[in-house]
Write a structure and sequence with these properties.
The N and C termini lie far apart (85 Å). Helix 1 packs across helix 5. The protein is built from eleven helices and no strands. The protein is mostly helical. Helices cover 73% and strands 0% of the residues.
């Protein structure tokens, strides 16, 4: 029995986290936030239908946010008629983030004695981590807070597991964590502060050369991830605005009286 539990405890924990997050999302009922009405649904539609050259900033500044985060909800709405099923699926990112937190807590609270004291502290820390008012209020919503947060939590869990096993973050662990966090930053630019924090954390221990090497390596992997998620959209913005504006400027300067 104990062997079976040891084998299936983590799959069960993941399933429980996903179910809890999904049910919490469904319980939150209809998502009618202002951002959804303004641009979250429109941005995905505009990206898939090449509307940038036709619509003039209909969602104001938010028209030019990276639309990739809005695609899952857009596709779910097109494919699934049930709002409850959509809400349940949208909660998955929060469930995965909670599972990553649980994995980290099992490392941060080592085994001692009969283990019940450890279980208590893990349970208390987990409860505090998943019941914050801000996080609960956007589970399953289209505010796009949980998808990049999930990526950050997974990155941290990978680094914590590597440090626990080897005493320091290995290169594969840094590569995965850096790229995944970079993707999160590219999807939501306000998460750039967490990318900088990850670089600082990578340089938090070791000799000065080791710290410098880890910070540089993490920064490189972050940049790779950032380009994977923002590169295409950034190129589209550049093509639409920078090059066209320069052509317009050149054309106007070539006209009589166009250059002053």
């Amino acid at each position: 029995m104990r062997a079976i539990w040891a084998r299936w405890q983590w799959p069960f924990a993941l399933a429980a986290c996903l179910a809890a997050a999904g049910l919490r999302s469904v319980a939150s009922r209809l998502d009618v936030n202002w951002d959804l009405k303004n641009y979250h649904f429109y941005n995905a539609y505009a990206f898939l239908n090449a509307r940038m050259g036709w619509d003039i900033a209909p969602a104001q500044l938010q028209t030019y946010y990276n639309p990739l985060l809005d695609l899952p909800f857009y596709f779910l709405v097109q494919a699934i008629p049930s709002p409850r099923i959509i809400a349940f699926v949208m909660g998955a990112t929060a469930g995965i983030a909670g599972f990553a937190l649980l994995r980290m807590l099992t490392v941060l609270f080592p085994k001692r004695g009969d283990g019940w004291d450890r279980v208590l502290w893990i349970a208390l820390a987990f409860a505090v981590g998943v019941t914050g008012s801000v996080g609960l209020s956007v589970i399953g919503a289209t505010m796009n807070e949980w998808p990049p947060a999930m990526m950050l939590m997974v990155s941290l869990a990978i680094l914590v597991a590597s440090i626990d096993k080897h005493g320091h973050p290995t290169m594969p662990a840094m590569a995965i964590a850096g790229v995944v966090t970079g993707i999160a930053v590219g999807l939501k630019l306000t998460y750039g502060v967490f990318g900088m924090a990850l670089i600082a954390a990578a340089a938090a221990s070791g000799t000065l050369p080791e710290r410098a090497r880890r910070a540089f390596t993490m920064g490189c992997f972050l940049f790779v991830g950032f380009m994977l998620s923002y590169g295409v959209w950034g190129a589209m913005l550049y093509e639409h605005f920078a090059i066209r504006s320069s052509r317009t400027s050149t054309a106007s300067s070539s006209r009589p009286g166009g250059s002053r």
